[in-house]
Structures are given as structure tokens and as C-alpha cells.
Amino acid sequence: MNFSLVVKIITVGSTSGAVRKRKVFEQKNRTKKKPDYRPYSSIIMITKSTKIYIAGHRGMVGSSVWRALESKGYSNLIGKTSSELDLRNQQAVNEFYDSEKPEVVIDAAAKVGGILANNDYPYPFLMENMQIQNNLIDGAFKSGIEKFIFLGSSCIYPKFAPQPLKEEYLLTDSLEPTNEWYAIAKITGVKACQSIRKQFSKDYVSLMPTNLYGPNDNFDLETSHVLPAMIRKFHDAKVNNHSNVNLWGSGAPMREFLHVDDLASAVLFALENNLPRSLYNVGTGLDVTIKELAETIQSHVGHKGKIVWDTTKPDGTPRKLMDVSKMATLGWEYSTELKEGIEKTYSWFLENKNHLKEVKLKF
């Protein structure tokens, strides 16, 4: 299908008589087919004083989004810790919306973990993630919030989908079994935002990042993702007389990695523009084998021991590379190369190793 991108300046009148101007991306379909989005019934004017709630603001993603917005001058940001607001509690979330009245919501809150955690604890990864996002999305909709940015994961796509992964591949085949519980939860969030957008013309958009890493990552060996887990393993082995490092699988699967600050820049891009579709991939469009990743991290850490691959453990999806052409067409792209990002992340790890974030699953 052939598309051209048109940038328009829309002038919107408010009840107070003020005139607001906003850049809006629209997609003109040359084949005259009906587009997959509707014009917005109202367009929120984003200013530096817009009240923005960042759910999960203490996590790796949320804290990076917070830093990105603050650095751009946004001065009215709201964040609540899990002890202050239990996002699994619908009444508490609704009361929060009623009292704080945010104008925009960025949902960076989730229960996350690597292959081991997803495989061993399927129920909390399914149920708690659905509770968190459903309460945030439905509460925002019922509170009249016009703009919602939902953050998910590339695991929503089928295990054997064609590569690179396009947004259109969602729900076209079966998922990767080791993390299908988390994936199903995130798919419901994507569809909730899409349905609100379709039926009520609100600016609810979903961004699906590839594998993330960076400052404030989880380095717990039981619940972390592959890159931070490798940093921890190679560092621990280095200080233990360069002992061997055991890694799951064959090392053959290919993965794409995005520094979390690049995702934050994509969130900022989505905040400041009305994107024409409901779902966008966010990544680099480049991937490496797990073996290459391990060797790169080993080199940066300075570990001299051997890598032992445990082929009795699952590899997971053979390849996960994102097609990021839709975001690129609109003008966003990543800036941090993998080697640079690993170096930065290991430096952060060394500076913070005495008080690292370690996520322990609770039931």
C-alpha cells in the first residue's frame, strides 16, 4: 500500500476562547482506502505545564521517561510509588485520577522478568499486568483523559512471525510459550487502547519497544532480562578469579536491543505529536546473536574465563527484529549504538553495584 505523509498545523479553539496550535501527523492513502484511524474529537495542547502522570516512574523505563521530560522543561510531572498507589487496586486508581486529575498518562508500569521468571510464575505475569494496565486505561478513559501512551513489548508478536516484525503481524500466529502470559496481558492493553481510539476518537497510542537495557535495570539473576543478567554474571565471575560463566541455550538466537533513553525519546516524540496509528514498534532495526552479545559484554567487563552454553535450557524465539519503519517515517530514530550502550550500562552498574535494583517476585 502506498502512503504519503502530510504534516498539518491544526488550530483548535478552546472554551475560554484561547487559540491552540498543534502539529498533527496525518496519513493520506493514495489508494483512497479508509485509513485505520479516526480524527480526534478533541486535541489536547501539550505545554511544559501539562499535568502528566508517569505510572512506574521508579522503574528503568519510567525513570528514563521522567528524566527525558524534565530535561525538556516539563514541570508538572506526577509519580507514585507502589506503596503510595497500588495499581492493581481499581478503586485506588480511580480515586487517584479523581484527586490528581492528570491530563496525560504514560503507562510504564508492569511486572517484568526474563525467561526463567516468565516460565516459572505465569499467573502473576498474566493477571497482575492485566490488572495494572486495565485499571490505568479504563480509569483514564472514564476520567476524560484524552492522551494515553501505553508501553508494551515486542513479545506480543508471534514466535515464528516473518522478520523483521511488523505491527500488522499482531495476532497472526501463536506466541512464544516461555513468555506468552506476559505477552497476552500486553496484547489486551494494546487492544484496549486501539478500541478506545476507534470508538471514541481519543489519542491513545501503544509503543512496543524491543529488548531494553540501561540505568536502573533489574540485575537480579532470577528475574532479570538477558543483557543485565549477563553483565551481572560476567562481573561476578571476573571478581571470582575469572571463573566460567554458564549461559542458557545455544547462543544462536538473534535479538535486538534498545537503550532505555532512546525509548524515552520515542515517548517524548509520541507525547508532542498526535501519531496517526494506534500501534508503533520502537527499536533499532538491528540485531545480534546472543553469543555475540555475550562476547561483547565479556570484553567490556574484562572477564577472562570461559563461556559455557547450557543447551538443555530453552533458547526462546529464534529471532526478534523489529520493523521500525513507521516511526522512522514520522521522524523518530534511535541514537545509542549497542557497544556504547553496554559501556554506559556497565559503568552505571559499577557506580551503583552496592545498591542495585533486584526484583523479587512476591505471591
Short description:
With 363 residues, the protein is α/β, with parallel strands linked by helices.
What does this structure look like?
The protein is built from ten helices and 15 strands. It has helices at residues 60-71, 90-100, 115-120, 122-142, 180-200, 226-239, 260-272, 290-301, 325-330, 338-352; strands at residues 3-13, 19-29, 52-55, 77-78, 104-107, 147-151, 203-209, 211-213, 245-248, 254-255, 257-259, 279-282, 288-289, 307-310, 319-320. A six-stranded parallel beta sheet has the order 4-3-5-6-7-12, with helices on both faces. It has a three-stranded mixed beta sheet with strand order 13-10-15. Strands 1-2 form a two-stranded antiparallel ribbon. Helix 4 packs parallel to helix 5 (180-200). The longest helix has 21 residues, at 122-142. It starts with a strand and ends in an 11-residue tail after the last helix. The model is unreliable at 1-41 (pLDDT under 50).
